[in-house]
Specification:
- 5% of the residues lie in helices and 52% in strands.
- The protein is mainly beta and 121 residues long.
- The strands form two sheets. Strands 2, 4, 5, 6, 9, 10 and 11 form a seven-stranded mixed sheet that branches. Strands 1-3-8-7 form a four-stranded antiparallel sheet, with no helix packed on it.
């Protein structure tokens, strides 16, 4: 009943920035916790950042200090601002949502289709 659509991916040089957006439609709710995951080719899925329904933020160790997650409840949108990008950030980025924080980090119930981010040296 809730659909997520990511946008903002693309190709960028190392050191550059990108801003990803995740728009929610359908039966949306401010009670959902939101997160960004990424998965590079032939690598495991990795938690990137999360934001609770109350606005608390969480980050994976590899992106702390470089990425910022935020949400705009009026627009039903969550953002991921990515600065100081590195080649190792190259991956497909997915937006996810769930009603519980525990399930959000392990196996979220709602996923977007993904958007590709490619960082070159």
């Amino acid at each position: 009943q809730v659909q997520l659509v990511e946008s903002g991916g693309g190709s960028v040089q190392a050191g550059g920035s990108l801003r990803l957006s995740c728009g929610a439609s359908g039966r949306t709710s401010n009670s959902y916790h939101m997160a960004w995951f990424r998965q590079a080719i032939e690598k495991e899925r990795e938690f990137v950042a999360g934001i609770s329904s109350g606005g608390s933020t969480y980050y994976g160790d590899s992106v702390k200090g470089r990425f910022t997650i935020s949400r705009d409840n009026v627009k039903n949108t969550v953002y991921l601002q990515m600065n100081s990008l590195k080649p190792e950030d190259t991956a497909a980025y997915y937006c996810a949502a769930d009603i519980t924080m525990q399930r959000l980090r392990a196996s979220p119930r709602i996923w977007g289709q993904g958007t590709q981010v490619t960082v070159s040296s």
